[in-house]
Every structure is written in structure tokens, then in C-alpha cells.
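Example 3.2
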Amino acid sequence: MKAIVYTEGGGPEVLRLTERPVPEPGPGEVRVRVEVSGVNPTDWKVRTAGPQDEGEQVPNQDGAGLVDAVGEGVAPGRTGQRVWIWEAAWQRSDGTAQEYVVLPEEQAVPLPDKASLDLGASIGIPAMTAHRALTVRDGGPARLGPGALRGRTVLVAGGAGAVGNMAIQLARWAGATVVTTVSSPFKARLAEAAGAHHVVDYKAQDAAAAIRRVAPDGVDIVVEVALAANAELDVSVTAQNGVVAYYDDGAEVVLPRWTFFGNLRFQGVLVYTMPAEAKRDAVAAVTAALADGSLRVGKEAGLPLHRFPLERTADAHTTVEKGEVGKVLIDV
């Protein structure tokens, strides 16, 4: 089978196309014929550091395809299922940038009939990050569903990004009022297409004033992509006892002195290390939202798709690293 591998850390040039044997599933595992692989920022960041173990590393956490073989202890009926894949390469040497991948069966989740393989390959890390961010508020739901956030106001920073897009869609599905910030008219149109009720171009208006007009008492949850840049804004618009859930850009953060007056909580979000129960809740909720038709991808959904063939995986990684707006997919 064809696979993309790397054996050392570095830029996209370390990725190479190779031939590998088709793997066999072990107990509790399934083998998925990968149709589409999704690329996330963590995929290229991990690549720069090198393989987790000695030997070849296949990149990419997310993907979608069909189960074509099952291991001992797995229901034979799973063969032929369309599935979406999450965390394929976390602490493992096999990601989704290959024609077949073997992984624990719970990481190959049945894909509802109405959901395309492109959609299945696009959710994974972005949707699970968004779900976690929307469920860490004190007294909030641990698992989203219709009405779970009714009466709440959510601020999504960077609503044109992949996580921001999923946060908007999941928050709408859960009944929240959604406000989002963007940096251009183009991104504003994407955030509107995703379903945001209110879009604030922070380069064209006073963001704090615009958000406060929508939520005079403050927003309940902030889904934050750039805490270092937005900490002062977040503190100024978040309601008492609210939460700023950040998945961040890695920059050092200085919090305003008055943060504690509002009893605000700042919660880091990283899918890979979040509690197992939170992962199960995210997978269940995302799958339910898919079945409801409440998650979409494509320009009409505010998340343009950028496609590459498997042999151009390096170009796909470069596109994500450069911050291209939308979702990068690899046709395996």
C-alpha cells in the first residue's frame, strides 16, 4: 500500500511516499481503508519534532474511510462501515496519510449516512476541541445536544478557522447565541455561513463595545484561539463566573489584574491530553450532530476545502502551516 512517512524531524521535505505492507488488525482493532485524510496544525508541528519512536512515522490524526477488516473481539458487522477517525497518530506511529490504517475500534466511529467522507475527515481534532471548549464552564453540560446551551451566549474568537467554524456550528446546534470575531469582510462572510448570529470585525469596529451590545451582561463562554492577543478583550466581555477556553497559539500570556473580580476561569484545551470521559462525550455529541445534519463543511458552510493527492502531502502540510483559511484534505 502507499503511505507517507518521515523518519526525522524537519520541514515538509522530510515527508516521502513509500510502499508498506497492508497491516492486519489485532484484538480490539479495525482496519480502515482511508479515503480522505484531514490535516491539522498539530500534524505539521509534531512533524517538525520528529517521529515519536524510532522508525517510520505516518502523519495526520484525522480521516474517513471504510472498515475493511476487524480483529478478534470486534463485531464482524463493522466490516463495510463508513467511519470517521480521530487521534490516529497520537502516541502511535500510524496516522491517516496512508491507504490503510489499523487502530482501536473506538477511534473509528460510524459515520451517519447523511455525512460525507469529506465531512468525516474534517471533524476529528477541530470538532472535539470545540466540544471541549463549549463544555468546561462550571455548571455547564458535559455533553452537548439540542438545547444544552439554551440561554447562553458564546463568543468564538476566529470564527473563520477550522475550530472556530466547528464551535459556531456546535454552539448553534446546542441552542446558544453565537457571537464571533473576525479580521476581514471575507472571514465575516465565512462566519456568517457557519451560522454565527453576530459577527464582529475587530479591525473595523470596537470589538468590546460591539460584543457588549449583543451581551450586556457578558458572554458565558469564550472559545479562544489567541489568548495572548485577546486576553484583555476576553476579560472585558465575559460574564461573571464565565470561562475562557483557549486552545491558543503558544504565546506567553499576561492576564489583566481585574480578572479575579469576575471569578473568571481560564481553561486550556488540548484534545490529546483531555480526560477520556471528555473524549467519549465529544465523540458521542459530534456523531449526534452529524446525524442531525448540524455539521457541514465547504465554502457554503464557512469552511472552504483545499484538496491534495496523497503524493502531495508535503504541499498539504505547507498550506496548513501558512494559515490558509479553510480545511485541508488529502485524497488517499
